[in-house]
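Contributing new records

If you add data, match the layout below exactly. Sequence lines come first and carry their own label; structure lines follow with theirs. Keep one chain per record. Anything else will be rejected by the validation script.
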Amino acid sequence: MHDESSTLGDKLILAAGMTLFAIGQSLLFIIIAPLVPLTGLSKTEFGLIFGIANIPLIFAAPMWGRLSDRYGRKPIFIIGLFGSAIGTLMVALALKYGIEAASSVGVVALLLLFARAFYSSTASAIYPSSQAYIADVTPPDKRAQGMALMGGANSLGSILGPAIGGGLAFMGLLFPMYVTAGIMFVGAVWAIFILREPVRHFEIKQASTLKFSDKRLRPFMIVWACFFLVFISMQFITPFYIADKYGFSDPKQMSQIASIALACMAVIITLTQGVLFQIIKPHPQTLLRLCGPAFALALVVIAFAPNIYIMIFGYSLIGFAFSFATPGINGGASLSVEPHEQGTAAGILAAANTVGPILGPAFGPLLYELAPNAPMLVGAAIFIVLSFYVMTIKIPEH
């Protein structure tokens, strides 16, 4: 049964947590990338460090999901928020040391690797616990709407991240990261006292035995892995693409334009998932089939954009692709497994997402060396193939 005792306030707390998580992620690409040369690291070294640091996600996300099935959604969600706060602060301090201290590049690289690995290991608790929470409190016919709410919150964070970064940059380039860490800490304390555990979780006694090899999740894992591989690759090369193709050399200008592009994308996602999909009831099957063609079209537009305005329009189209993908993939996977498997399933999907953070930082720059628009063209080809593949995926009604 649908858990009627869970109020809109509980869902909003979850959404706020996802927003904070996304703020931290968006600050990574907007603030950190332009600072990399100041630490002595190359673009490739930067990508490899953050790629390796995301490897713990493969193991941590399913672990947190399984623990949320066993001990509850609330405690795991709170752990994720605290981990995000501490991890963001650690990354900021590592960057500060790299910029200011006369130290070797190797030391800076190790500090960044450790800080980011801690962030990956702990913040990864947010995604599976929140997704499982929504699965607990939404009936099957509204599952896509619930997942869309989380996706909209994530996108809102992607909007606020650049806004915070730009609005507080006058206090110092790393100051926005300190502020974000503080907000995450406050959010974690708030959740301790306000968030309620779903009644449905207490009613389910059966332990989850879900594994990575489960054929019910395999199609959704493939689509998510490809989606994030291409998307993270794009995020890593966007500032450099702006500089090389359109002639911008000032790091602040590069960050501003990249911020605008990502903000436009996030606005589309927020309005589509947070407003439109809360009014209508799209089925995950339909959304899953729309995300591939939308992403391929967006990548082609960006690859051949004659100016930054068309490039920004291409990022707006990626917003539609993401709007379809999040509730389509997460909602479809949720409907494909049993109630007692929701947390573990969300954790496994989150682990599949890590293909992007692990390989994307290297995949994008390597293709970029061949041609500035090669990452977009290869990504478009991948999603043309995926568009045919998802036609074979059947999502249960209940």
